[in-house]
């Protein structure tokens, strides 16, 4: 009985001496590919639209699986906010990753037309994906991360417009 009591007192004390590590690490994001597939002109009641495909790699550094919920981001091209990117629930294996693809139809406005034309002409542009997400960690809770820059880089593709 005395040994059991001594052990129950020592275990928490020894645990307090062990180095502490953050329980939750933020997943990492990398844009594998972003491509402007078409740029339509306005016609009648239909606005001009930029159609994009985006492939995003998400990595989970945690030793437990994580489900990302409420993933909402903004795509910025040369500093211009060109549109919203929403992904469905993203399931990440423990210490693993997944690739999510999204097809976007973004409205072209007077503020964003220059950025989309630059991409369509094959010119190099800077992009950034800023956003927030909630990580569903089961019994550990549902912390929300962000807003912060999820990914950024330089975008250049073959021209899709001849002018």
Description of the structure:
Strands 3, 4, 5, 7 and 8 form a five-stranded antiparallel β-sheet that branches. The N terminus is likely disordered. The chain has two helices and eight strands, in the order αββββββαββ. The radius of gyration is 23 Å and the shape is elongated. 20% of the residues are buried. The protein has 163 residues and is mostly beta strands. The longest helix is centred in the first third of the chain and has 16 residues. The chain has a single domain, classed as Immunoglobulin-like (Sandwich), CATH 2.60.40. This is Water stress and hypersensitive response domain-containing protein. Pfam families: LEA_2. It comes from Deinococcus aetherius.
How many strands, which pairing sense, and closed or not: the largest β-sheet? 5 strands, antiparallel
Structural class: mainly beta
| The top level CATH class name | Mainly Beta
Distance between the termini: 87 Å
CATH topology: Immunoglobulin-like
What is the count of β-strands? Answer: 8
* Overall CATH architecture: Sandwich
Low-confidence segments, given as residue ranges, are 1-20
Helix content: 10-25%
Number of domains: 1
Protein name: Water stress and hypersensitive response domain-containing protein
Domain Water stress and hypersensitive response: 35-151
InterPro entries: LEA_2, WHy-dom
């Amino acid at each position: 009985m005395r040994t059991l009591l001594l052990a129950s007192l020592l275990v928490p004390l020894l645990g307090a001496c062990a180095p502490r590590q953050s329980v939750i690490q933020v997943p990492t994001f990398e844009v594998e590919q972003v491509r402007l597939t078409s740029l339509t002109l306005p016609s009648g009641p239909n606005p001009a639209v930029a159609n994009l495909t985006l492939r995003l790699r998400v990595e989970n550094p945690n030793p437990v699986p994580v489900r990302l919920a409420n993933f909402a981001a903004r795509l910025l091209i040369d500093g211009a906010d060109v549109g919203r990117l929403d992904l469905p629930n993203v399931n990440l294996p423990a210490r693993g990753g997944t690739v999510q693809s999204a097809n976007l139809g973004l409205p072209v406005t007077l503020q964003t037309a220059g950025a989309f034309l630059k991409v369509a002409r094959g010119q190099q542009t800077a992009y950034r994906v800023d956003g927030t997400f909630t990580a569903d960690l089961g019994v550990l809770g549902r912390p929300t991360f962000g807003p912060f820059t999820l990914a950024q880089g330089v975008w250049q593709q073959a021209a899709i417009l001849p002018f």
